[in-house]
């Protein structure tokens, strides 16, 4: 049933099952799916919740205030999806299809909840200002931003050229983000380590960690590549 679900979306179902048991429900319902989305905390839906300062704790208290309190059931007991929750999953599949998404993710589950407008989860979401068409547009804009965002090698052309030269020489290297503004490449050689930082504006800083502890400029890269030798044949 969940073959098309991403790991994040499957985790939502797992969390929903847990919350259903702690709320003493006999089935996984829409409000439990909403709690699962809020617990997941990393997908597109989580970003939408964060913008509206909608938290798991706030929604959990509201659900508890609207329902009767019972003794929690064991998390090992099989628990089916309610008819409304099943409809939400069907809606999520349709929404993924509308977006030409190969997998069902957290944003599609959120849209599925909003489409099932008479359920408790949708009532809570709309009371917090979330509307189906608005959320669809927000998801579309997030997707457009992801598509438009340059990948590291496109944003840092000197980085792309340097990495290509390292790969041609079959040299191992480590790439990391430095201070959220530069991309750092580390190359280890016998008795010294080179750390090359590439900045979006084209600047390149080179540090050589050896006995001398030298800090050099971009011109040092040619010397490093000379030391590594010519490109290796395939």
In the predicted model, the low-confidence regions spanning at least 5 consecutive residues are none
Proportion in β-strands? 5-15%
Largest sheet: 5 strands, antiparallel
Number of helices: 11
Which homologous superfamily in CATH is the superfamily of the largest domain? Clp, N-terminal domain
Key words describing this protein structure:
234 residues, alpha+beta, Double Clp-N motif, Double Stranded RNA Binding Domain, 2 domains, 5-stranded antiparallel β-sheet, 11 helices, 5 strands, 12% strand, elongated
How does this structure look, described?
- It is a single chain.
- The protein is of the alpha+beta class.
- It folds into two domains: 7-148, Clp, N-terminal domain (Double Clp-N motif, Orthogonal Bundle), CATH 1.10.1780.10; 153-228, Double Stranded RNA Binding Domain (2-Layer Sandwich).
- The chain has helices spanning 7-22, 30-40, 44-51, 56-66, 83-98, 106-115, 120-127, 132-148, 152-155, 157-168, 220-228, and strands at residues 174-178, 182-189, 192-198, 204-209, 215-216.
Task: Please give a quick description of this structure.
The chain is α+β, with helices and mostly antiparallel strands. It has helices spanning 7-22, 30-40, 44-51, 56-66, 83-98, 106-115, 120-127, 132-148, 152-155, 157-168, 220-228; strands at residues 174-178, 182-189, 192-198, 204-209, 215-216.
């Amino acid at each position: 049933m969940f073959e098309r679900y991403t790991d994040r979306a499957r985790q939502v179902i797992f969390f929903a099952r847990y919350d259903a048991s702690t709320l003493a429900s006999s089935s996984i319902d829409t409000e439990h799916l909403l709690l699962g989305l809020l617990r997941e905390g990393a997908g597109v839906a989580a970003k939408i919740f964060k913008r509206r300062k909608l938290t798991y704790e706030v929604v959990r208290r509201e659900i508890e205030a609207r329902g009767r309190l019972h003794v929690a059931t064991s998390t090992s007991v099989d628990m089916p999806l309610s008819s409304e929750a099943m409809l939400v999953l069907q809606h999520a599949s349709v929404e993924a299809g509308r977006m030409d998404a190969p997998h069902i993710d957290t944003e599609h589950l959120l849209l599925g909840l909003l489409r099932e407008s008479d359920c408790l989860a949708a009532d809570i979401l709309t009371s917090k200002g979330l509307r189906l068409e608005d959320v669809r547009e927000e998801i579309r804009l997030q997707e457009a931003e992801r598509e438009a965002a340059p990948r590291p090698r496109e944003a840092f052309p000197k980085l792309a050229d340097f990495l290509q030269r390292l790969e041609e020489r079959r040299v191992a290297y480590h790439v990391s983000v430095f201070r959220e503004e530069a991309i750092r490449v580390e190359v280890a050689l016998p008795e010294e380590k080179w750390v090359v930082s590439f900045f979006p504006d084209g600047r390149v800083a080179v540090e050589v960690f050896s006995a001398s502890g030298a800090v050099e400029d971009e011109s040092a890269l040619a010397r490093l590549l000379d030391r590594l030798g010519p490109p290796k044949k395939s």
